[in-house]
Design brief:
The chain contains 3 helices and 33 strands. The protein is an alpha+beta fold. InterPro entries: Ig-like_dom, Ig-like_dom_sf, Ig-like_fold, Ig_Fc_receptor, Ig_sub.
């Protein structure tokens, strides 16, 4: 008998020694393939047997956590990195976690019920996904276990309501997924055995947005006074059962509760009841998660923009690198003198006033003749004698000053359209002509 007792003690010592020498291991719960902003997850240091707790390291830096289980209540990209734990001077391998900075594609909300329910109650959840729910299922995390929820789906369903089983543990986490590729957000439902509960939005609060807390009493709305507390310090006391934070900041994080003074409609006498709620954690995100579809669209626009810029630079480079002439000379047909090159030494004869004595030039019909200074006498004027198309070639007729007396004018002599018929004659009369007419009258 004595030998058997010693054997049992020896066996227990060996088991304890083996546990102390066991290397700890970090595990993640729930076992997500992707972690999104706002998710809740747990890290556990498995295999630890130290009575003095464990040490946690994040990116090789020791943390304040000493519990075997480390709860990340609201995940953000800041939680991305490596985690490891140490127990009995044994250090676990590192586990790497990457928290995505955007929200999942599908949406899960509470359709009926509250984020805080009484024990053995249930809620109705609603799942929505624009791309359809074919192949989707939901999961629930209670304590340390995860269970599968099968959904009754229609062929073309994009939205589905389903009722949960009874809520029996203090905290239950729900989410839905499609083969591990796509997932919804989490919904956390807590339970309380108290008559008074603190209601708030089931998802984390967002910096810059408003947050409303409501004190509820099961079975009645006859609430005469409500007091709100944060971390044990009173915030406000009034007859309004709600408390609103107009613009959430990081300092809004903390544990909140409320206390109500109330009665029931069927109670006609006696003092009012006074009861407080359980503490609830208010979690804060520094910015709202961005929808996955929005990020995909932004990424596609950036890719298309970059491609357009690259193509434009490539085309410009090809044009610069081309060896051929940018402008091609137009070949002049034989005998076509409409367009000729203007040489530096010899110009076309259209501008005789610039080069009146240009060599090797033949006079063309209808051109202008140069006005030579030496052939002009003082006081000589020119006018144009118009002829018809079938008449002579347009020449200039000199009106010489000699032979003209003061006050004598000549008009433009205009020939007819055919054969040079006169259209107008000179109408001026000289003084000598007037004298001849006078003598004839006297005779």
């Amino acid at each position: 008998m004595k030998g058997g007792t010693q054997l049992l003690l020896l066996l227990a010592a060996l088991v304890l020694q083996s546990r102390c020498q066991q290397t700890p291991k970090v595990s993640l719960s729930p076992t997500f393939t992707k972690i999104y902003s706002g998710d809740t997850f747990y890290l556990r240091c498995e295999g630890s047997a130290s009575q003095s707790g464990v040490k946690w390291y994040f990116n090789d830096t020791e943390q304040m956590q000493t519990n075997e289980t480390w709860k990340i209540a609201v995940a953000t990209p800041w939680h991305s990195g490596s985690y490891q734990c140490e127990s009995n001077r044994q250090t676990s391998d590192k586990i790497t976690i990457n928290v995505l900075g955007y929200a999942p594609s599908a949406s899960l909300i509470i359709r009926t019920g509250q984020p805080v329910m009484r024990v053995n109650e249930s809620v109705i959840l609603q799942l929505d996904n624009e791309d359809g729910l074919r192949g989707w299922h939901c999961e629930v995390y209670r304590g340390k276990t995860t269970k599968y929820i099968k959904l009754k789906l229609q062929e073309d369903s994009v939205s589905l309501d389903f009722q949960t089983s009874q809520l029996t543990v203090p905290e239950t986490i729900f989410w839905c997924m499609n083969g591990g590729q796509h997932r919804s957000n989490q919904i956390t439902v807590r339970t309380s055995e108290k008559t008074v509960s603190l209601e708030m939005y089931p998802l984390p609060a967002v910096v810059g947005e408003s947050l409303t807390l409501r004190c509820l009493v099961w079975g009645t709305d006859q609430i005469s006074q409500t007091t709100f507390y944060k971390d044990g310090v009173m915030l406000v006391r009034s007859d309004d059962p709600t408390y609103t934070i107009p613009s959430v900041t990081e300092s809004a994080k903390g544990r909140y509760k409320c206390m109500s003074i109330f009665t029931y409609k069927d109670r006609t006498a006696g003092p009012h009841y006074s009861e407080s709620s359980d503490d609830q954690d208010v979690l804060v995100l520094d910015h709202p998660p961005v929808k996955t579809l929005f990020l995909v669209l932004v990424f596609l626009l950036l890719v298309l923009g970059s491609a357009a810029v690259a193509i434009a630079f490539y085309i410009r480079y090809r044009k610069r690198a081309a060896t051929g002439a940018i402008y091609e000379d137009v070949e002049r047909k034989k005998g076509d003198n409409d367009y000729e090159m203007l040489g530096h030494a010899q110009r076309e004869g259209e501008y005789d006033t610039l080069h009146p004595e240009a060599p090797s030039r033949q006079k063309r019909e209808g051109e202008y003749e140069a006005l030579k200074k030496e052939e002009m006498e003082e006081g000589v004027y020119h006018t144009v004698q118009m002829q018809a198309a079938s008449g002579g070639g347009g020449e200039y007729e000199q009106l010489q000053k000699e032979g003209m007396e003061e006050g004598q004018y000549q008009s433009l002599n205009m020939e007819g359209a055919i054969g040079g018929v006169e259209g107008h004659e000179a109408s001026g009369k000289s003084d000598k002509g007037r004298e001849n007419e006078t003598e004839e009258e006297k005779t």
